[in-house]
Design brief:
The chain is mainly alpha-helical. The chain is about 55% helix and about 5% strand. It has a domain of about 80 residues. The chain is built from 4 helices and 2 strands. A hairpin with a 6-residue loop joins strand 1 and strand 2.
Length: about 160
């Protein structure tokens, strides 16, 4: 992919451009301090300003180059990353094209499949302290229940 390589080239250009701007800013500071100060103080301060501008431009240029180069490499290797992380990935546009294809008309001769019967709810474990049996179904009931857990019939008061 050329896009990733182009971004990496831009990163190198930005690196040298930032270094050049830092050097130019240092020279401008050196000259401006010479106009406003007299004697040897301007030389010392101007030289310090020059060194400071150049010294700050190196890490800034390096950080910018690292960010852009990393982004360029990521763009370049996107397909490899995608195939590694999600091998069954289908691009969105391709998925939409498949969905847009006309579906076959339903067959009028075909009967709909019967729906499976709903599963019965799980029955609770038998009560350990059996106080009452349901008069309707005979299921054991836990102490303190007012209705049967199995059939819902009202239980006699204990």
């Amino acid at each position: 992919m050329e896009t990733g390589k182009n971004i990496q080239r831009i990163a190198k250009i930005l690196y040298w451009l930032i270094l050049g701007i830092g050097l130019l800013a240092g020279i401008v500071a050196f000259v401006l301090l010479g106009k406003f100060l007299s004697g040897t103080a301007w030389i010392l301060l101007g030289f310090c300003a020059l060194l400071l501008c150049v010294a700050l431009s190196f890490p800034i240029a390096w950080i910018v180059e690292c960010l852009f180069s990393g982004f360029g490499e990521m763009v370049e290797n996107t397909a490899v990353i995608r195939d590694t992380v999600a091998p069954d990935y289908v691009p969105f546009a391709e998925q939409r094209r498949k969905e847009a294809q006309p579906r076959p008309a339903p067959d009028p001769q075909r009967r709909p499949e019967p729906k499976p019967a709903p599963a019965e709810p799980p029955k609770p474990a038998p009560a350990q302290n059996v106080a009452v049996r349901c008069p309707n179904c005979g299921a054991e009931q836990a102490e303190g229940r007012k209705s049967c857990w199995n059939c819902g019939a009202k239980l006699p008061e204990a």
